Amino acid sequence: MYGYYFKPTGLAHLDLALPGQALEYDFKLLKEYGEYLKSDGVVILSISQMTFINRENEDVDEGRYYEILDRTQIESFRLLDYYKYMYFPGTNSDNFTSALSSKWKGLKWTSHQSWANNGENYAERKTEYVEEQYRKAIEHNYMEQNLERLKEILEYCQEQGYEVILTMEPVHKTYQEHFDEEVMNRLVFQHLNTLETDVPFLNYMNDERFTDNKEYFIDSDHLNSKGRKKYSWIVYEELKSLGYF
Q1: How many CB atoms lie within 10 A of CB 202?
Q2: Host H or E run for residue 219
Q3: What is the pLDDT, as a whole number, of residue 64?
Q4: Is 214 helix (H, G, I), strand (E, B) or coil?
Q5: For position 95, what pLDDT does the model report?
Q6: What stretches in the chain show pLDDT beneath 70?
Q7: Neighbour-count burial for 175-200, b at 16+ CB within 10 Å, e otherwise
Q8: pLDDT digits (tens, 9 = 90+) for 164-212
Q9: How far apart are CA 56 and CA 184, in angstroms?
């Protein structure tokens, strides 16, 4: 989704999230920019169906970190790629690559629009992708690796005096139908349950304030600008009621 929007609350906040970001880079950015956080600040860490099945360093557009992380923190840093991203950024875009390879040639555009068939097409494609990633995760123990990374983040935050909140963002009902409780338990919840921590987990995935409202979404699992403003206020109000502000 778009980043959190806490401006109306008067809170100062720093958004370190980029689309599709793995826990590995969550941790790198937190350590890099932690100096800007108050010692008693609140760190909100978003959890999704991809959190534990992502492979670190796989399919990561690491060029987007060249301007915000030291090159020693970028796993597969190559000087040639650095110059390409910094001085010829257009050659690294998905659109450019797609145009060169004719990757989408022969496919009907309507089948790839976010809300074609009421979002069902998108949800089906995302389901196929997630299941493929899940099979890889089982084979290569990605889930254990990501769980350890999450533990490291929680331990680091405790050492720095930060309060940590885990959240799960709302999705549209079309998406929910593919990622029901059984699937989410397999992908996410069983792993969270192994954590020996009292860190709160605020799960808004099936929140009825969003589930049937396409006006809040870019696609069936990503909030748009209007959606993120509404969601951010809801999170703020809940954290306030829990005594964090």
Answers
A1: 17
A2: strand 217-219
A3: 56
A4: helix
A5: 44
A6: 1-2, 17-19, 56-112
A7: bbebbeeebbeebbbebbeeeeeebe
A8: 999 999 999 999 999 999 999 999 999 999 998 899 999 999 999 999 9
A9: 21
Burial class (CB in 10 A: 0-12, 13-18, 19+), 60: buried
Tokens representing 234 are 């809801």
Is the full-model pTM beyond 0.70? yes
Do the beta carbons of residue 195 and residue 151 sit within 8 Å? Answer: yes
Query: In the numeric block, which tokens belong to residue 233?
Result: 């206020």
Beta strand 163-168 pairing with 42-46: parallel
**What's the Cα-to-Cα distance from 190 to each of 37, 148, 149, 154, rounded to whole Å?**
31, 14, 16, 18
Write out the DSSP string of 127-189: HHHHHHHHHHHHHHTHHHHHHHHHHHHHHHHHHHT-EEEEEE----HHHHTTS-HHHHIIIII
Angle between the 23-33 and 142-160 helix axes, to the nearest 10 degrees?
Answer: 20
C-alpha–C-alpha distance, residues 7 and 232, integer Å: 10
Crossing angle for the helix pair 142-160 and 120-140, nearest 10 degrees? 90
- Radius of gyration in angstroms for the set of CA atoms belonging to the chain, rounded to a whole number: 19
